[in-house]
Amino acid sequence: MYYLFDGDWQQVHTPIDERACAYGDGFFSTIGVYDGQMLWQDHHKDRIRTGVQVFGFELDIEPLMGHLVKFASQMNEGIIKIIVSRCQQSVRGYGYQDGQCQVWIKAMPSQIYQGVVWIDGVPVQPAMQIGCLPDALPTRIPALCGVKLIACPEQVLAVARLQQIQQDNPSISDALLGDVRGEWISGTTGNVLYRLDGQWYTPPITHAGVAGVMRAVLCQRYAIRERRLIDDDLARLDACVLTNAVRGITPVVALYHQGQWRTLSVCMPLS
């Protein structure tokens, strides 16, 4: 673990009174690295810039990106995780006086893309079967919509529920997750794209969920439209994929909902 503050890097452990630990006061991004390059570097830069603006942090992004580029070139292949959080404040409790922040980076070299199929520069994982979770994502305040918050207990509990389901049905690899309004928003660790009547869509991230990097890449590349995804749509889907900035695209071959399986087409690239 590396700690960056005021231009100086140190190797440390996170103390318990850090605001990241105490309040989840910050955001993060997880970046795939292949052949010494960060995947979708500009989109991750945009995510970091958005997080800095939302939290009012004082951070020069260009030097930070330079450090990330250096870490990527050194590790060649694997994952970089970056957390940006507010520094400790002199006021008690939740309040803060300034936007001074700190950056935590963890570089995890690993051959995660060995054997993965690449289509149009995007890693495509083996197809999987998914289910639907009864848990609901909470509605966020407008300023935090789409931000990848380090405080994400709803995702933690959703994955725990998925693991319980997998004990009885190990063929289910992931699941759709809805919000309190009854709309399907995402998978447990990524966004969802779906094809209906020949057109690709993705649920809008205006009330709940995270605006993922891979989602942004694909929406820009394939002109994917935003559209609500509700129960009645699930029985009519042509195709579906889950997306993640590290894993890329994972096609869905079957969806389990309300006691029934629905077989879906695998369309790579998104066509």
UniProtKB/TrEMBL annotation:
<dbReference type="InterPro" id="IPR043132">
    <property type="entry name" value="BCAT-like_C"/>
</dbReference>
<dbReference type="InterPro" id="IPR050571">
    <property type="entry name" value="Class-IV_PLP-Dep_Aminotrnsfr"/>
</dbReference>
<comment type="pathway">
    <text>Amino-acid biosynthesis; L-leucine biosynthesis; L-leucine from 3-methyl-2-oxobutanoate: step 4/4.</text>
</comment>
<comment type="similarity">
    <text>Belongs to the class-IV pyridoxal-phosphate-dependent aminotransferase family.</text>
</comment>
<keyword id="KW-0808">Transferase</keyword>
<protein>
    <recommendedName>
        <fullName>branched-chain-amino-acid transaminase</fullName>
        <ecNumber>2.6.1.42</ecNumber>
    </recommendedName>
</protein>
<comment type="function">
    <text>Acts on leucine, isoleucine and valine.</text>
</comment>
<comment type="pathway">
    <text>Amino-acid biosynthesis; L-valine biosynthesis; L-valine from pyruvate: step 4/4.</text>
</comment>
<dbReference type="InterPro" id="IPR001544">
    <property type="entry name" value="Aminotrans_IV"/>
</dbReference>
<dbReference type="InterPro" id="IPR036038">
    <property type="entry name" value="Aminotransferase-like"/>
</dbReference>
<dbReference type="GO" id="GO:0008483">
    <property type="term" value="F:transaminase activity"/>
</dbReference>
<keyword id="KW-0032">Aminotransferase</keyword>
<dbReference type="Pfam" id="PF01063">
    <property type="entry name" value="Aminotran_4"/>
</dbReference>
<dbReference type="InterPro" id="IPR043131">
    <property type="entry name" value="BCAT-like_N"/>
</dbReference>
